[in-house]
Amino acid sequence: MPETREKQKESLGEEKEPNAQCIICGKRYHICNDCKNIKSAFPWRTVADTVTCYKIFMALKQYLDGDISKEEAKDILSNINIGSLDSYTDWVQFQIKRIMG
Ligand SMILES: [Zn+2]
């Protein structure tokens, strides 16, 4: 039962240690066990540290999956307060520039 073993390991660890890395800005953050388990309640917590990062993630994902057009992705990104591109990973900067270009 790998699931049980993992739970035991986590309960022994320090609660506030960063245990996840944002795939958008690369920042390390803490994700609580509840957030991990209740994926439907806080889905963004499992991939990104902030809602902004998650919105960027969703826009890029939908665009790269072909679910939305470049124009639609541009629209979404324009409505997100992205701030400085330097705060994001090289891959994200590349994708944003490609879409906004
Ligand atoms: Zn982030």
Outline the structure in words.
The chain has 101 residues and is mainly α. It has one domain. It has five helices and two strands. It has helices at residues 2-12, 33-37, 51-65, 70-78, 90-100; strands at residues 20-21, 28-29. The chain has a two-stranded antiparallel ribbon. Strand 1 and strand 2 (28-29) form a beta hairpin. Helix 3 runs antiparallel to helix 4. The longest helix has 15 residues, at 51-65. The radius of gyration is 16 Å and the shape is globular. The chain starts with a helix and ends with a helix. 17% of the residues are buried. Residues 7-14 have low confidence and may be disordered. The structure holds zinc ion. Zinc ion is lined by residues 22, 24-25, 27, 48-50, 53.
Overview features:
5 helices; 101 residues; mainly alpha; two-stranded antiparallel sheet; binds zinc ion
> How much of the polypeptide forms β-strand, as a percent range?
under 5%
Report the sheet with the most strands, covering strand number, pairing sense and barrel closure: 2 strands, antiparallel
C-alpha Rg (nearest Å): 16 Å
In the residues, how many domains can be counted?
Answer: 1
- Uncertain segments: 7-14
Shape: globular
| SS-based class | mainly alpha
- Give the fraction of residues assigned to helices: 40-55%
**Separation, N- and C-terminal Cα atoms:** 49 Å
Number of strands: 2
Provide the succession of SSEs: HEEHHHH
Q: What is the average of the pLDDT values?
A: 84
Count of DSSP helices? 5
Strand order of the largest sheet: 1-2
